[in-house]
Specification:
It is an enzyme of class 4 (lyase). It is built from eight helices and eight strands; from the N terminus they run E-H-E-H-H-E-H-H-E-E-H-H-E-E-E-H. It is α/β, with parallel strands linked by helices.
Length: 220
Amino acid sequence: MSKKVLFVLTSRNQYDDGSQTGLWLEEASEPYRILAEANITVDLVSIDGGAVPIDANSTQNGELEQYSDFVDKINDVPSIKTVNVDNYDAIYLPGGHGTVFDFGHNQELATVIAEFKEQNKFISSVCHGPSAFVGAKDKNGNFIVKDVTLTAFTDEEERAMGLENKVPFLTQSELENQGAKFVTKDNFVSHVEQDGLFITGQNPQSSIAIGETLRDALTQ
């Protein structure tokens, strides 16, 4: 039986000031490619369904052409409301700044993630994708990431981008406040942490490494 992974993508296309954002394309496309090449089935959903917005900053070097097959697949996707966790072996949450607006403090998404954890299934995410864990609790009322070793886009990286005042929260700080054991490495270098069911990557440069780590976890 082929393994199956659920990708959850952002539906948010702008910051509060109206400037454009969305999905960081590489963070979804590279893991999708790696899993597909390993004959692992991937289903794509987004928070609201429909067309997934792509952050234009992630398409400055020909990525729309490089990942054209994936781009075609996200023109119209189901919403997270359609998800049955029983059908999957893992969830993957790529980033892009859109996610800090519609992943964080999202009870519907938090419930899905909690079900993956309860069923002992892999929970993987990269860059701003772990904003999905912000505010997320299990059925016992404990933060899902309490005592979990993980990483995500760091506060220092956010400041290096000059975006610390455009986001509703700093992902690292919020996860640390929830009891996560947050590990940082140098800015903008590939870095993946695995702690039991949790597989997390720090930044876009970690896209290939997290795809490979998730693939290996599912196939070993």
